[in-house]
């Protein structure tokens, strides 16, 4: 259960590396219903949703039996972690996160809870990009690109929200967190670095488009495929 749509989309894309049917709900009430009626193998719950009331969903998951639980939070204080574990969370991950970390944790929790987690799918295809989470590289056509963890997270964030303009503030929040104070042009610099590796000319964008006075938008297919 994740209230932030951009974050929820990123988690959904990331978990496509496993053979999982995924569902997201944005409210505590809908989360309770999903736990009761759907009985998922794994619950990822943003414990900050609805002023922290979402943490109660851990209790609901534990009451249903074999549901693995990963708590997510943007907070850095120890109290939230202790509370989540005291209620029975199997793992805890801070936001922002890198995609391969979430894949590994989700796979491990499902395996511990259910005995097997299914086959890991290391590669995802998005348009004419192929993302290899195990080796942290991207194939763009015939070019093999090696990304830093931050570049990988930026690519997942943009690709997961393909066609939607993400503001610089949304990108900052998703990749650096709400409490991290950094220079104002950090998003632009990292987008430029990712574009350079993708060999993506901003004048004729194939993957990442600049939306004037707004932010950035991922183009799910190349310009050549559109024409």
Short note summarizing the structure:
This protein is an alpha+beta fold. It has nine helices and ten strands.
Write the layout of secondary structure elements.
Elements: H1 5-14, H2 28-37, E1 42-46, H3 56-63, E2 68-73, H4 78-86, E3 91-94, H5 99-114, E4 123-126, E5 129-132, E6 137-140, E7 143-146, H6 149-160, E8 165-167, H7 168-176, H8 186-198, E9 208-211, E10 215-218, H9 223-226
Parallel strand pairs: 1-2, 2-3
Antiparallel strand pairs: 4-5, 5-6, 6-7, 8-10, 9-10
Helix pairs in contact: 1-6, 2-3, 6-8
Question: Can you walk through the features of this model?
Answer:
- It is a single chain.
- With 227 residues, the protein is an alpha+beta fold.
- It has 2 domains: 110 residues, Response regulator (Rossmann fold); 104 residues, Arc Repressor Mutant, subunit A (Orthogonal Bundle), CATH 1.10.10.10.
- The protein is 40% helix and 19% strand.
- The strands form 3 sheets. It has a 4-stranded antiparallel sheet with strand order 4-5-6-7, with no helix packed on it.
- The longest helix has 16 residues.
